[in-house]
Structures are given as C-alpha cells and as structure tokens.
Amino acid sequence: MDNLTRDEAGLTEREFLAEYNPADWGRLSVSVDTVIFSIDGSLQNENIRKLDEQKLTVLLVKRDAHPYLGKWLLPGGFVGLDESPETAARRVLCDKTGLDDIYIEQLYTFGAPDRDPRMRIISCAYLSLIDRGGYSLSNSDKKLQTSWFEIEFGKGAQEIILKSGNESLSIPVKSHVVKNGKIETSAYTVKDGSALAFDHASLILEGILRLRGKTEYTDVVFNLMPEQFTISQLQQIYEIILGQKLLTPQFRRQIASKVTGTDIYTSEKGHRPSQLFTYRGNKN
Fold first, then answer.
1. The predicted structure's pLDDT at residue 268
2. DSSP symbols for the chain
C-alpha cells in the first residue's frame, strides 16, 4: 500500500521519490578488498631436532594499471549495482585467486576522502583465512601476478615487513591513545610512506589486529590449520599470531577441549613420533 502521509512540503512518499535526485549527493563508489592470511609451513629448520619454521603470510597482487602501476596491493574490485559487498568480495576472490568456499568475515570500512586519487571510493574490507595446503591459486586474468608475502615484525612493533623472494615491503606503524567517551585505548595506525598501493597497508594492519584479537577468544585459528596437525605445530601458530611465547602445559590444557586425537603419528627424522590431532569443532 502506498504511503499517503505527507511531509512538510506536502509530498507523499511516491511524489517525494519521483522528485528525488541522487546526483545532489555527488558520485560515490564502493569497492571490496580482502586480507587473506595463511601459514607457510614449508620453511625447513637447519636443526633437525626443532620444528620446521612456520610463517604468517598475506596474499598480494601486483597492480597492472594506473594509479599505483606496479605496486603490490590486496585482491579487490568494485561492488556491482546488483551485488552485496560480501557477494562482490567472494566474486573478486574467485576471479583473482581462484579461492572459493573459504572463511571470510567483514573486517572494517575504510572511507578517507583521499584514499583513492581517481574518485571518492569507500572500501568494505574483508578478512579471510585459509590452509594453503588445501587450496591452489588461479585467476581468470593470466597476466595478474600474485604472491604470498611473509609477515615479520620489526623491533618494538614499529614496523611490519612483508617479504617474498627478493622483495621487501615496509609498513611503518605508530602507536597512540584513542579516547572514546570515558574509555581510553591503545591503537595502532600506519605512518606515511608505506610501500603498498592505496591505503592497503592499513587494511593489513587492521587484519593482523583482528586476527590477533579473535585468536584469544574464538577458534578462528583452525581455519589456518591442515586437517591433521600436532599440538606443537598448533602452539607455534598461536605464538606467531599473538606475538608471544606460550607455556606448553597451559596451552595444552586450554585447547584440550577443541581437538581430538587420531591414531596417526608423525615419523619425521630427528623427532620423536608425535600424535596428530584434528579440530573438534562443535562436537561434544
């Protein structure tokens, strides 16, 4: 039923919409960008009695057009007029990486007026976590260059360094206090001078902070793990994400209800056999 209630100008809703001009608000576009984290467990340790080193990694693509031609950035694209942001994010992921049916959640909305030199663009950023061993990358554009970058943290948490082969990208970080009402909290932002395109360094920083926070109170980290893993491997991933060493006995007690042991044991040279576990999920 039509709304016949009239506003102060004497217009019904239908009359108001007939006269409404969206161009009065200028042009605004919406894009999606995805921070895809994974673990690289292929780095072998020279000491055979220690676990192979694992690294937190993020997937970047090289921009093949202006602006920021030749710069690295996150997989992203524009939201279509008939799409929701999440639908667009999943489409872009599939087109540019071949990844489908993976964990994804909305991360943050980035809308600084000058974040894109072309026009006013607001980005809905998403966080995605995958087990690299269970997926292979592909894309519809064979010219598109993609690469996994290892994430390292500089001294004093004042810099994030992304490394892939001979390439090294710096994300300078600064800490400050943010007051919101009566609450004051510590916050981290990216300084000027990041080597990435657009404001994607800020998206990566926000993704790391979100991942670190959710690891402390959810099971989200298991999206990074293979189907079977040792407790030592799982603990190492927690330590990488949280940026601190954990006490093994306490860690084992905390995750005991989250994992289920299998009848399979590792047989790696230089190590005692270790039992493999799987994620229990919502099982009782």
1. 66
2. -------TTS--HHHHHHH--GGGG---EEEEEEEEEEEEEEE--SSTTSPPEEEEEEEEEE--SSSSTT-EE-SEEEPPTT--HHHHHHHHHHHHH---S-EEEEEEEE--TTS-SSS-EEEEEEEEE--GGG-----S-TT--EEEEEEEE-GGG-EEEEEETTEEEEEEEEEEEEEETTEEEEEEEEPS--SSSTTHHHHHHHHHHHHHHHHTTSSGGGGGS-SSB-HHHHHHHHHHHHTS---HHHHHHHHGGGEEEEEEE---TTS---EEEEE-TT--
Fold of the 29-215 domain: Nucleoside Triphosphate Pyrophosphohydrolase (3.90.79)
Distance CA 56, CA 41 (A): 9
Phi, psi of 231 (to 5 degrees): -65, -35
Q: What residues does each domain of the chain span?
A: 29-215, 225-279
pLDDT value, residue 48: 45
What's the CATH number for 225-279? Answer: 1.10.10.10
Q: What is the pLDDT of residue 50?
A: 56
pTM exceeding the 0.85 threshold for the entire prediction: yes
Which residue numbers in the chain have pLDDT < 70?
Answer: 1-3, 42-52, 140-141, 155-157, 268-271, 282-284
